[in-house]
Write a structure and sequence with these properties.
Blueprint: E1 13-16, H1 20-33, E2 36-42, H2 49-53, E3 56-61, H3 72-82, E4 86-88, H4 98-106, E5 110-111, H5 116-123, H6 125-134, H7 150-160, E6 164-168, E7 178-180, H8 186-201, E8 206-210, E9 216-224, E10 230-242, E11 245-251, H9 258-274, E12 279-287, E13 293-299, H10 306-313, H11 317-325, E14 342-349, E15 351-352, E16 358-359, E17 362-363, E18 366-368, E19 375-379, E20 386-387, E21 394-402, H12 405-418, E22 420-422, H13 428-436, H14 438-442, H15 449-459, H16 464-483, H17 494-507
Parallel strand pairs: 1-2, 1-4, 2-3, 4-5
Antiparallel strand pairs: 6-7, 6-8, 9-10, 9-12, 10-11, 11-14, 12-13, 14-21, 15-16, 17-20, 18-22, 19-21
Bound molecules: adenosine-5'-diphosphate (ADP).
Adenosine-5'-diphosphate is lined by residues 140, 165, 171-175, 177, 209-212, 217, 241, 244, 284, 286, 296-297, 447.
C-alpha cells in the first residue's frame, strides 16, 4: 500500500541489515511508509519473526555474526539480488562501521544513516573530543591523544586527581574502560584496558578522563535532514546502568529543566553540525550534581532506547530516518518539540537476575505480552524462539507512556506483572523490583547507583507478588505432581516457583498474575 504521507520515495524497497526487535521495528516503519522490506538472516534465525515479517528474506550465512550479519559483501549481494535500493543498518553489527556506509554508497544504494564521513569523524572517542571542543562543546576533562605509557598516564592522573577513567579510543559497550583509584593501580589497569581494546576493536589506543563522581547519563536525540535543518528532540535519562550498560531509560529526565534542555539541545546540535551530521543521532552527556554537563560521545545510529523519545514527542524516529534518507525535509520547528508526559523503557534480556544476571538460554515455551493503555512492546521473540548465545541477550523492550513519571512507573509495574516468558530466564524480576524501589521512584539515581544497590536488591526477600505466587506454586505443583500431568520442574527459587505456578495455573484453567 502506498502511503499518502510518503508518495514519491526515492526508493521502493529497503533491506534491513539486522535481526531481532530492531529489524522488526524497521520493517514496521517500511510497511507504514509503503516501502517493501527485505530481511537478511543467519542459519540460526531461519524461522525468526523478522524473517516472516519482511516481504522477502535472504540467508546470509551461519549463526556466528562474523560469518553472517557482519559480512558487508553478503549484505550488498542480498540487496542486489532482491533489487533493494536502500539499506538500514539498525544498531550494533555494521551500523557504525564507516567502511560499510561507504561501501553501501559506492555500490549505488541509499544508506539510511549519517554520511560515512560523519561516522568516521565521530567514531573514535579521541577524534570526536577534538572535533567537538573546537565547536565549543564541553567535554570531560582529560587527554585527547592516546597515552604512550603508564608514566604519561600517571602524570595526567596527578594533574586531574584520582579517580580517573581509562577509556579505549575505539570503545563501545563499556569495553576497554577501567576506573583507577590510586597511582599503584594505574600500570596494571592500563595494560588490561589496552588488551581488552585490542581484542574487542583491533585498536589498543587508550586515553584518560577524569572520573566524574555521581553523575547522570543524559543524552540528547538529534535529527537532521539534507537541507540544513538540525533539530534536537530533548533528552533521555539512562543512568540505571550495570557495568556501563543501560538497563532502564526514560524521557524526559527528572534532572533536566526546560532551560537546561534548551542548552544541552543547542550543544548537541552544535556537535552534530561540527561533524557534518545528517539523519538520527545521539549525543551522550554526563550531567554532574551541579548541573554541569560534559559530552561523552555521539552515537551515529538509531539507539535501543529511541522509543521513549518517540512516545513523548510523537515523532516516529525510524520513519524519519527513512524519509530523510529519501531526501525529505523535516517539517518541524524546534519550538514545537516539547516532551508530553513521561515514557519509560525496560530492557527485557535473557539474563537471570536471581543468578547474578547469568546469561540464560532455551526455547521460549510460553509467552504473554503485556498490553492495555500506554503499553508498547518492541520484541524480537515469540513462542518457539530459540534463545542462544550467538547474539545480544536483549529479547525485547517494554515501553510505557503516561501523563506523569509516577503514573508511568505504576503502568510499567502493571505491564511487567502481565508479562510472562517461559523457557528462558529473563530480567523481568529485576525490573519489577526497580519499579518498587523507593530511590528509583524518587528519581534519585546516578550512573553508579545501581551497582551499589544490586546486592541489597537481590538479597531482599522476593516482593509480595512473588511470595504470594510462590506459596500457591508449591500447593499447585504438589497437586500437579500427584496427577502427573507433566514432569515437575524443580522450584529452586522464587522465580522458578513463580514460573511453575504460572504453568500450573494454566493447567488448572486459572489466570496468573
Ligand atoms: P561506551 O562507548 O563504551 O559505552 P561511554 O563513553 O559511552 O563508553 O561510557 C559508558 C558509560 O560509562 C557512561 O554512560 C557512564 O556511565 C560511564 N562513564 C563514561 N565516562 C565517565 C567519566 N568520565 N566519569 C564517570 N563515568 C563515566
Amino acid at each position: 500500500m502506498i502511503s499518502p504521507e510518503f508518495p514519491n520515495p526515492l526508493f521502493t524497497k529497503l533491506l534491513v541489515a539486522n535481526r531481532g526487535e530492531i529489524a522488526l521495528r524497521v520493517i514496521r516503519a517500511c510497511r507504514e511508509l509503503g516501502i517493501a522490506s527485505v530481511a537478511v538472516y543467519s542459519d540460526a534465525d531461519a524461522t525468526a519473526p523478522h524473517v516472516r515479517a519482511a516481504d522477502e528474506a535472504i540467508n546470509i550465512g551461519p549463526a556466528p555474526a562474523a560469518q553472517s550479519y557482519l559480512l558487508g559483501e553478503r549484505i550488498l549481494d542480498a540487496a542486489r539480488r532482491t533489487g533493494a535500493q536502500a539499506i538500514h543498518p539498525g544498531y550494533g553489527f555494521l551500523s557504525e562501521r564507516e567502511w560499510f556506509a561507504r561501501a553501501v554508497r559506492d555500490a549505488g544504494f541509499v544508506w539510511v544513516g549519517p554520511p560515512a564521513e560523519a561516522i568516521a569523524a565521530l567514531g573514535s572517542k579521541t577524534a570526536a573530543r577534538t572535533l567537538v571542543v573546537a565547536a565549543g562543546v564541553p567535554v570531560v576533562p582529560g587527554t585527547t591523544p592516546a597515552l604512550q605509557d603508564a608514566a604519561e598516564a600517571l602524570a595526567v592522573a596527578l594533574q586531574f586527581g584520582f579517580p580517573v577513567l581509562l577509556k579505549a579510543a575505539a570503545g563501545g559497550g563499556g569495553k576497554g574502560m577501567r576506573v583507577v583509584h590510586a597511582a599503584d593501580e594505574l600500570a596494571g589497569a592500563l595494560a588490561s584496558a589496552q588488551r581488552e581494546a585490542r581484542n574487542a576493536f583491533g585498536d589498543d589506543a587508550v586515553y584518560v578522563e577524569k572520573y566524574i563522581d555521581g553523575p547522570r547519563h543524559v543524552e540528547i536525540q538529534v535529527l537532521g535532514d539534507m537541507h540544513g535543518t538540525m533539530l534536537h528532540l530533548g533528552e533521555r535519562e539512562c543512568s540505571v546502568q550495570r557495568r556501563h550498560q543501560k538497563m532502564i531509560e526514560e524521557a524526559p529526565s527528572v534532572a533536566v529543566s526546560p532551560e537546561l534542555r534548551a542548552r544541552m539541545g543547542a550543544t548537541a546540535v552544535a556537535a552534530a553540525r561540527a561533524a557534518g551530521y545528517v539523519n538520527a543521532g545521539t549525543c551522550e552527556f554526563l550531567l554532574d550534581q551541579d548541573g554541569n554537563y560534559y559530552f561523552l560521545e555521539m552515537n551515529t545510529r538509531i539507539q535501543v532506547e529511541h522509543p521513549v523519545t518517540e512516545l513523548v514527542t510523537g515523532i516516529d524516529l525510524v520513519q524519519w530516518q527513512i524519509r530523510i534518507a529519501a531526501g525529505e525535509a523535516l517539517p518541524f520547528a524546534q519550538e514545537s518539540i516539547v516532551p508530553r508526559g513521561w515514557a519509560i523503557e525496560c530492557r527485557i534480556t535473557s539474563e537471570d537476575f536471581q543468578n547474578g544476571f547469568l546469561p540464560s538460554t532455551g526455547r521460549v515455551s510460553y509467552m504473554k505480552i503485556p498490553s492495555g493503555p500506554g503499553v508498547r512492546w518492541d520484541g524480537g521473540i515469540e513462542i518457539g524462539s530459540d534463545v542462544g548465545l550467538f547474539y545480544d541477550p536483549m529479547l525485547a523492550k517494554l515501553i510505557v507512556h503516561a501523563a506523569t513519571r509516577d503514573a508511568a512507573i505504576a503502568r510499567m509495574h502493571r505491564a511487567l506483572l502481565e508479562l510472562e516468558i517461559e523457557g528462558v530466564e529473563t530480567s523481568r524480576e529485576f525490573h519489577l523490583r526497580m519499579m518498587e524501589d523507593v530511590e528509583f521512584r524518587r528519581g534519585d539515581i546516578t550512573i553508579q547507583w545501581l551497582e551499589a544497590k544490586l546486592p541489597e536488591l537481590s538479597a531482599v526477600m522476593p516482593p509480595e507478588h512473588d511470595v504470594r505466587t510462590a506459596v500457591i506454586a508449591a500447593a499447585l505443583m504438589a497437586e500437579r505432581d500427584r496427577n502427573a500431568v507433566r514432569p515437575a520442574a524443580p522450584a529452586t527459587n522464587a522465580t522458578a516457583a513463580n514460573a511453575a505456578w504460572q504453568r500450573a495455573a494454566r493447567l488448572e484453567g486459572l489466570r496468573s498474575s
